[in-house]
Each structure stands twice: as C-alpha cells, then as structure tokens.
Amino acid sequence: MDQRSPPLNGRILVVDDNVTNASLVCDLLTAAGYTAVRAITDSTAVVDTIEEWQPDLVLLDLHMPGTTGYDILAGLRSRLSGDTLLPVLVFTADWTMAARQRAFDLGAHDFITKPFELTELILRVRNFLRMRQMHLEIQERNQRLAESNEALLRSEQSARKLAAELEAANQELIGFTHSVSHDLRSPIRSVLATSRMLLEDCGPAMSKEHRGMLERQEWNASRLSTIIDELLRLSRVSRVEMKIGEVDLTRAAEDVAEEIMDTTERPTVRFDIARDMQAFGDPLLLRLVLSNLMGNAAKFSPGGGSVQVGQSIEDGRRVTFVKDEGVGFDMTHAGRLFEPFERLVRDEEFPGTGIGLANVKRIVERHGGTIWAESEPGKGACFYFVLGSDGAAED
Fold this sequence. Notes:
Layout: E1 11-15, H1 19-31, E2 36-40, H2 46-53, E3 57-61, H3 69-79, E4 88-92, H4 97-106, E5 110-113, H5 118-202, H6 208-239, E6 245-248, H7 249-263, E7 270-273, E8 278-281, H8 283-300, E9 306-314, E10 317-323, H9 356-366, E11 370-375, E12 381-386
Parallel strand pairs: 1-2, 1-3, 3-4, 4-5, 7-9
Antiparallel strand pairs: 6-8, 9-10, 10-12, 11-12
Helix pairs in contact: 5-6, 6-9, 7-8, 8-9
C-alpha cells in the first residue's frame, strides 16, 4: 500500500451492494465538501480496488450477498502490512454483540448503525481521516528517523574504520620517522666529525677556498642534524598524551626567559612578563609554545629591545600574546608562518629551521585553540593564541 500522506479531504471508498445506498452516501459526502469519493457495489472486487486506488477510509456495508463484509475485512487483513492503518467504518443494522465482535476481530475500527444521521456520519469520517493522516505522518517521521539512524550507523562504522586506518598509518609513520632519523644521524655525525677533524688538523695548510668549503660542509651537516631533531619533535607533539590542568603561565614564561638568558652568549633583550597569567592545558606542551614564541621574539629583537609576554580577556576567553620589537614581517605572507620549513627571513641573518612555529600551531590546535600573528616590517611582531577550553570562567 502507498504510504504517502493523503490530501486534506482524503480518499473515501464506499462499499455497498445496494446502488441506491452507495450513491446516497457518496452524494452526502460530496455535499459535505469531500471531493475524492468513490463507490463500489461489486463486493468481490473491493480488495483489489483498495490496493489500486489506495483510499484513506473505507465505509463498508457489513451484510452483503455473496462476499460479506467479514470476507472483505479478512482479505484486507491478509494483504495489508502490519504497520498500515486503513480505517474501516462499518455500516450495519445488526445490533448483536457477536456480529460486532467478529468485525472488530477482523479489523473494523468502528460501527455506524443504519439508519444513520448525516451529522454523525460526517463527524466519524472527519475523525477517521484525521487519524489516518496522523498515522501516515508518524510513519513518515519514523522512516526518516530510521534512515537517519542507518546513516549514523554507517558513519560510525566508517569513522571506526578510518580511526583504525589512521592509527595504523600513525604507527607506520612513527616507525618510519625513527628509522629515518637513525639512518640519517649516523652519516651526518660522520660528515660533521670528519669536517671538524680536517679543519683542526689540516686547516692551516689549506687554501682559503678549501677551508671555506669544509666550514660550509660542517655548518650544513650541523643544520641538517638540527632539522632532524626538530622533525622528530614535531612528530612527537602530535602523539604525546596530554595531561590537562591549570597552568601558571607566568611561572612558565619566567623559566623560559631565564633559560634563554642562560643559553645566549650576549643577552641583548629584556623580558617584560605579566603577573597572574593562567591557562588550562598540558603544562609541558604549553611551555614548549612559550619557549618557541619567546625564543623567536628574542632572536628577532634588536639589542636593547624588550619582549612582552601578557594576557587579556576578550569575549570571555583568555588571549595570551608574545610581542617583540624586532624586524617584523609583511602580513601578506602571514599564512606561511606556521608551515614547516617556511621562513620569512634569510638564514644568514637569522638562523633557524622553520619548524618551531609549526610545532606551536600543532600544540595550540591539539588544545582546540587558534593562533595568529600581527606585524609590520620594521615594527616588530605579536603572536596571539587562545586555547579551546581556556575561558575566563576558570579565572
């Protein structure tokens, strides 16, 4: 049976072997405003007609010669699916309880006694059509829900499969990374050691050109070793298990500043670190963020310049920033800042690998946050980051 929602009036099939009675009921319903009304007097063709025309309500005379209303009800019950509601209003002059009980058992929904009043008939028809329409709407909603559940199940299965494939790929990448780092480090150490020995033992006897070539070779081997270490750190950042909690960013920034001053041969900048800075995240990873941002700020700042580390509340979120007075950069190239190996300055001026900011971006994103920068050439740069769970409510 077709389960589409019926028109507002609905389709009404009148079944009565008496042509006069069938025509009278059709005329009454048409006069009441129902436009889709059809009569059938051949009781043997009722079930086929119902399947073909798909009415929303059947008005059925119970006692007919040959095939009775009972037979029609039994035929409908055998053909209709269990979740199909087709209201059947039975016309009968039989007042016996046995007749009514039998009709109910076979699927009738209600009785109207002959002779009937027009008002009663119209009320019953309207109520049954409304019930039919509500039933079809519920079925349609259930169907949509079932389709949504099926789609969700497929999505969950796809997600689980994708997660398993991603985990396998990660494990493969981890193995590859360690293998590459091990295979590369040994020859790099050999090149670096050989270059240094030649410079120490044979340097004075070499021409300036040859000595320069060895020095560049040593420098490049050292740089390649540093890049491998940074790449390993970048891969670990994505895998390390985070231990989330309250982080004293002021204390972390002070530790980083002290470390930078201790490892710099001639400290040329001063650090201005705000008090009472807090964050909610992994303390080790967030310290790495500060170490990269503050280290870059110190490297690019001129002698006597200052690096400011602070925090503000914007739209209920804690925004942490690191600001320097350095060379700055053109904002048209800002999109390249956080990509691995992308650098906006020359190595001869400011040595580096171009991986530190990629590490910073990955850490911030693992915390569900965002990072961005603002700058002008020659006027310094300011890096901002917000963590996803780092709201002012925790203050």
